Every structure is written in structure tokens, then in C-alpha cells.
User: What shape does this take?
Amino acid sequence: MIIEQPAVFLRWLFPHALWRMDRHQKSVYLTFDDGPIPEATPFILDTLDRFNAKATFFMVGENAVKYPHLLEEVRRRGHQVGNHTYNHMSGMRHFTWTYLANIKKADEVLHTRLFRPPHGWIRTVQYRVLRHIGIKVVMWDVVTRDYSRLLTADDVLHNVKRFTRPGSIITFHDSLKSIEKLKHALPEALAWLQEQGYEFRIIEQ
Assistant: This one.
């Protein structure tokens, strides 16, 4: 549960980041990290269309450069785009100015005020600078763990069912590690969320 839902102390450490949206509205905020890539993004987009669901895609800048048509397709279908650094860079392993330069490089392609640090690893000084320049840092309320080799597609679906609550920001991955599990888990999860009466919303800039 520590992985699937972030510990309270992390929410205290970054109190102005978005961890969960309005808990009084029966809405969820689907997010997809790491893309876009041709092996996963088209399936995700088509599945979202089937359920009339919108999502926020936190993209790696170099992937958006490689596949600009997928970046444009995400936007064309009415989804939101967020920054996930240019090279999937960990804030904990780099100096602040190096990290911020990498984010800026990605933004030259993505043009967004939304940012999610890869793995959620970010130094407090980096977080404060981003807030100061008007970047909205988006974390999560539920991690599906669709990237894990130790979990099955049914495990991913179980995580959605067990941990989702009103206002949850749910994290999936637009990646090679996740796509085989998502082929089963994503449509099943969307169907279940609809049955529970959840509305799908994007994170506004």
C-alpha cells in the first residue's frame, strides 16, 4: 500500500503539489506517464475513446520529439499534456540547474504548465523553484504498478479497484513495460470506474 498510495509524510513534504483532487466530487483523473510511443499510445487513445474518457499524458520530451504525430494526436483527441522531463531524469540524482534545464528543454516541445517528476523523485529546492515560476507539480493518489514485472494484469486492475476513491489521480504508464498488462487491465478498469459512477476528468493547466 505504501507504493500504491503515497505515504502521508510525502504529501506533507510537498503540500502544494496535486496528490488528489476534490474528494467531494465522484471524479477520477487518469494519467499516463513516459510516452508517447507507437507501441502503446495508439491503443491507450483508442481505449479511452471507447469509454469517452479523457486523460492527462505526462510525456518524456525526447519521445515527443521522436513521435510528434502522437503528441498531436493526444491533443487532437482532447487530452491534456504534461511535462515528465526530457530524458526521464531523476531530480534526486542531478543538480537543480541541470534538472530545471532538462524540464525546460522538454517544455520547448510540450508547452505545458503541468509537471510530474519521474518516480516522484524531486528535491525540495527543485520543487520550490518550479512553484515559483508557475509550474503545477502533479503527483498521484493511486499508482497502478502496471510497470512491475511482478504483477499481472489482474493485479493492476485490483489496485485500481482497491485504492480508487473520489478525486483520485490514477497513474498508468504509456510504456513498453506496461502495454501488455494494459491491453486487459485498462478497458476493464475504465468499465469498472464507469459502473461505480465515476466521471473522467483532465487536470487543468
User: Anything to note?
Assistant: The mean pLDDT is 95. The radius of gyration is 16 Å.
